[in-house]
Amino acid sequence: MAEHDPIQVRGLNHFFGAGEARKQVVFDINLTIAAGSLTILMGPSGSGKTTLLTLIGALRDVQDGSVGVLANELNGADETALVHLRQRLGFIFQAHNLHESLTATQNVLMGLQVHGKGNAAKQRKAAHHMLGLLGLSDRRDYMPGNLSGGQKQRVAVARALVPNPEIVLADEPTAALDKASGHTVVALLKSLGQSRGTTTVMVTHDPRILEMADRIITLEDGRIVADITPQN
Ligand SMILES: Nc1ncnc2c1ncn2[C@@H]1O[C@H](COP(=O)(O)OP(=O)(O)OP(=O)(O)O)[C@@H](O)[C@H]1O
């Protein structure tokens, strides 16, 4: 598997349920995603976007086909390999799951402490820097209960990005954000793609950010029905 394409999906099928209730929700997906790119997954509700994203993120077992992520084959991979791989990924999901008893900075630090990266002073500096990039410098000592929904979402984004993940997987990361904040988040992901080679795959219904994507993939009934690169 070539190291330079961080995500390589081949002949991927996925099913939910068992027996009579067994239902196929992903059909023969083939997809190669380039390093440093920002890809948007769109499509109607129930089209399989979240299922595909969680399969790529090693958050559910690959049943049939091949999912290659950062040169790891996920089909048949053991749990130790999956745990190790997940530490190289950043997840931004809608339910932001901030710790209510920790400040914004402490929540962001949780993203680093899992990885044990750097000493405490360096970690704090990195957390403050990332909160600053997301426009939250004046909120860094606030508890989540005193932040708006959009501010909480940006803290969750900071927590996902601060350990410098190689791939960011995001499920509707701008849904709770106003236009300016949504733009800030996506512009940051795009600039990390350019400066660090971070690869982002994002599920979104948000038409405001489509123009910022390198690639837009549309799913319908578990199949890719369109795959475009807007600049061309
Ligand atoms: N845990 C599950 N058990 C059974 N069926 C599921 C499960 N998760 C998802 N599905 C079904 O799989 C299909 C794809 O769901 P998925 O969540 O991937 O779609 P989606 O495109 O992300 O939708 P949305 O935009 O509403 O989030 C849907 O028909 C859904 O009902």
UniProtKB/TrEMBL annotation:
One of its GO terms (molecular function) is transmembrane transporter activity. The keyword Nucleotide-binding applies. PROSITE patterns: ABC_TRANSPORTER_1 (PS00211), ABC_TRANSPORTER_2 (PS50893). Keywords: ATP-binding, Nucleotide-binding, Transport. InterPro entries: AAA+_ATPase, ABC_heterocyst_DevA, ABC_transporter-like_ATP-bd, ABC_transporter-like_CS, ABC_transpr_LolD-like, MacB-like_ATP-bd, P-loop_NTPase. One of its GO terms (cellular component) is plasma membrane. PANTHER family: ABC TRANSPORTER (PTHR24220:SF376), IMPORT ATP-BINDING PROTEIN (PTHR24220). This is ABC transporter DevA-family ATP-binding protein. It comes from Octadecabacter antarcticus 307.
